User: What shape does this take?
Amino acid sequence: MKIKKDGENYLVILEKGENINKSLEDFAKKYNIESGFFSGIGAIENPTLSFYNAHKKEYINKEFCDKFELISCNGNFAQKDDRIFAHIHVVLSNAEMQTIGGHLNQGVVTATAEFYVITNGQTWKRLYNDKIGLFLINPED
Assistant: This one.
């Protein structure tokens, strides 16, 4: 991982073999980032994606055994269960230029992954919402 600070924000470059979720959470922990947003592009392999079925209040998980372009990656950082959590959504493209997308549970960088992280100096917390069945950012906390 390579990091360059830009005022209160950061350029984060992940290298081949790094796990995106773990690396972004490790970065946020190391730099004491308790909330913020990020966007990125790059290339990954063998991702596991999820779709949340709101009616059943459960995730549908699917692993894709292939290499993909990371066309778009957006997410945020917040505290969940007393640790930093990176909530990540992606759009991926395969060699046939077909796209898939969803919540990224894990993905390993195949070449590079480049992220711009915008911090805000706040602490956001995810609290469980019984009605929705998810840990959501609570703006009142």
Q: What stands out?
A: The first helix runs from residue 20 to 30. Residues 2-137 form a domain with the 60s Ribosomal Protein L30; Chain: A; fold (CATH 3.30.1330.80).
